[in-house]
Design brief:
Elements: E1 2-13, E2 16-27, E3 31-36, H1 42-49, E4 57-62, E5 71-74, H2 79-82, H3 88-93, H4 108-121, H5 136-149, E6 154-158, H6 166-181, E7 186-190, H7 194-200, E8 203-207, E9 212-215, H8 216-223
Parallel strand pairs: 3-7, 3-8, 5-6, 6-7
Antiparallel strand pairs: 1-2, 1-4, 8-9
Helix pairs in contact: 4-5
Length: 234
C-alpha cells in the first residue's frame, strides 16, 4: 500500500501554476529523491504534500494509517532560524508538538524518545548546548532528530546538506540512508546533487519542463538521453 499517492497534481503559489499533471506514489520503505532545475517546483511540491501550500488541482491521498501530523519535516533554514536561542533538547522535543493536541507538557515517554533520537544522530553530548552556537552540520542533525520525534513512518527533507562542507554532507547522507535501510523510515528528499540521489535513492522524481517518476535504475538510463544533469538550489 502507498503511504502517499499523488494524482494529476497542479501546483503553484499566488495563482501562478508551475507544475501540472504530476502523478507519483511513495510506498513504505521507499527512498525518493526529488530533483530538477532551479525554480522547477520541488519545494512547492513538498510544502503542498505537507498541507502548507494549497493544492491547485488533483489529489493527494495518504495510506497505511499515515496522518499529516505524523510526518517528520526538515525544511531549509533561514538565517533567523539558525540563530534560534533554545537548547538542543528543547528543539528536539518540539518535534512532538504536532501530535500533542492541547497537552501543555511533554511526558516521560516523549522525553525518553527525544534522547533516543539524539543518540541516533550522535548529538547526545550537545543536549544542553544552545542551538545557535552549533555548526551547520550539528544543527542539521538536531533538526533531523526533531523530525524523528514527529514520525515513525516518513520524513521529508528539503536540501538537508545545503551549505554543509563535504564531510558533513557525506555524514548526513549516511545517517538518512541508515534511517531508511535499518529503521525502515520512508524518505522523501529534495536534492540538487544528482550523483548523491542516484547513489542513495530507490526512486527519482524529476520535475522540470518534462517530468519523470521512476526507479533510480530507469532514471540512469533516461538521464543521458532525456534529462541533462542539473545543479542548483530552489
Amino acid at each position: 500500500m502507498s503511504l502517499i499517492e499523488c494524482k494529476d497534481l497542479s501546483l503553484g503559489y499566488d495563482g501562478h501554476e508551475i507544475v501540472k499533471n504530476l502523478s507519483f506514489s511513495v510506498k513504505s520503505g521507499d527512498y525518493l529523491c526529488i530533483v530538477g532545475e532551479n525554480g522547477s517546483g520541488k519545494t512547492t511540491l513538498m510544502k503542498t504534500v505537507l498541507g502548507l501550500n494549497p493544492l491547485i488541482s488533483g489529489e493527494i491521498n495518504f495510506g497505511d494509517g499515515l496522518k499529516k501530523n505524523e510526518i517528520g519535516y526538515l525544511p531549509q533554514q533561514t538565517p533567523v532560524q539558525r540563530d534560534f536561542p533554545a537548547s538542543v533538547f528543547e528543539i528536539v522535543l518540539s518535534g512532538f508538538c504536532g501530535g500533542m493536541g492541547i497537552k501543555p507538557f511533554y511526558n516521560r515517554q516523549q522525553k525518553e524518545e527525544a534522547v533516543c533520537n539524539m543518540e541516533k544522530m550522535g548529538i547526545s553530548n550537545l543536549k544542553n548546548r544552545c542551538y545557535r552556537e552549533l555548526s551547520g552540520g550539528q544543527q542539521q542533525r538536531v533538526l533531523l532528530a526533531r523530525a524523528l520525534c514527529a514520525t515513525k513512518k516518513l520524513i521529508l527533507l528539503d536540501e538537508p546538506v545545503s551549505g554543509l562542507d563535504s564531510k558533513a554532507a557525506a555524514e548526513m547522507y549516511s545517517i538518512v540512508k541508515r534511517l531508511n535501510s535499518e529503521d525502515g523510515i520512508t524518505v522523501i528528499m529534495i536534492s540538487h546533487d544528482i550523483s548523491a540521489a542516484v547513489s542513495y535513492a530507490s526512486h527519482i522524481l524529476h520535475i522540470g519542463t518534462s517530468c519523470l517518476f521512476c526507479t533510480k535504475e530507469d532514471y540512469i538510463k533516461n538521464q543521458t538521453t532525456v534529462f541533462p544533469e542539473v545543479t542548483g538550489n530552489e
